[in-house]
Amino acid sequence: MNPFIIDNAVPIRFGFFLIVFIGMAAWERLSPRRPLTASRRTRWFGNLAVTFLNPVVLRLVFPLTAIEVAILSREHQWGVLNAIGGPGWLKGAAAVVALDLAIYLQHVLFHRVHFLWRFHRMHHIDFDIDVTTGARFHPIEIVLSMVLKIATIVLLGAPPLSVLVFEILLNATSMFNHSNILLPLRMDGLLRLFLVTPDMHRVHHSILRQETNSNFGFNMPWWDRLFGTYRAQPAAGHESMVIGLGDFREGKYLSLPWMIAVPFLRKRKP
User: Fold this and answer.
1) Three-class SS state of 135
2) Which is nearest to 180 in space by CA: 255, 248, 129?
3) DSSP annotation of 32
4) Mind giving me the DSSP string for 204-247?
5) Tens digit of each residue's pLDDT (9 = 90 or more) over 18-72
């Protein structure tokens, strides 16, 4: 892996984040899918605050980044991919796909296990869904997710470049599929063959429990179909469906202090 990329992985990721964020935010203003029900200023302040808080928390908790763990794994020849032969490009592609499957399974786990759901539900109490929702995750969930990601990287022996590509893709597709953009139905149907679309993922943010527990994919759309968690459309339609959780309908849950407090409140299971 190019030393320049290793040394500049953080600014590279941040650069992609800014490009995708600005692009999706502009698209939402020009061609929104749904009218917003809550104050954009209130929502964005809380969502962006936790977006920039989470990397700080990660740096305080973990001495190494995911890419540095991948480099360490390669140096010590840890993991399945380091133990087998084959073209580097094939192993790199396999690592990206395997990491995406791991994120899908992790997402299901955070819905199925009540202790984990207490942290993940902060992501679901947003009253609307737009580009900022794509990074709205509780700091403790981010820490737990990082533990699982590091374990997966070590077990796989994922190449450092694959980890960087995956993190950029996951970040970009999360902002894309949470964005409030209008896509022609034909384009949405075509994109769903290889990418999770906003209409596909919006179902996952429905207030209806059976819809909340569907469409767990963030990047690749195949896992939901393969494991039987795919739901094509919301029962009420995209314009009329209600976003959020029934137990968290008060405006205070859009503020950062209450967002952080959500896991410690006694509310229903998903």
Assistant:
1) helix
2) 129
3) B
4) GGBSSHHHHTS---SS-SHHHHHHT----S-TT-TTTPPBS-TT
5) 999 999 999 999 999 999 999 999 999 999 999 999 999 999 999 999 999 999 9
- Please, what's the b/e burial string for 67-98 (b: 16 or more CB within 10 A of its CB; e: otherwise)? bbbbbebbeeebbebbeeeeeeeebbebbbeb
Contact assessment for residue 173 and residue 196, using Cβ atoms and an 8 Å cutoff: yes
Measured in whole angstroms, the distance separating CA 58 from the mean position of its chain's CA atoms is 16
pTM of the model: 0.93
* Cα dist from 268 to 85, 107, 115, 121, 244, whole Å: 49, 18, 12, 10, 13
Which residue, 46, 50, 49, is CA-closest to 38?
46
Q: Domain-by-domain residue ranges, the chain?
A: 3-264
pLDDT tens, residue by residue, 213-238: 999 998 999 999 999 999 999 999 99
Integer angstrom CA distances of residue 103 from 89, 149, 212, 246: 21, 8, 17, 26
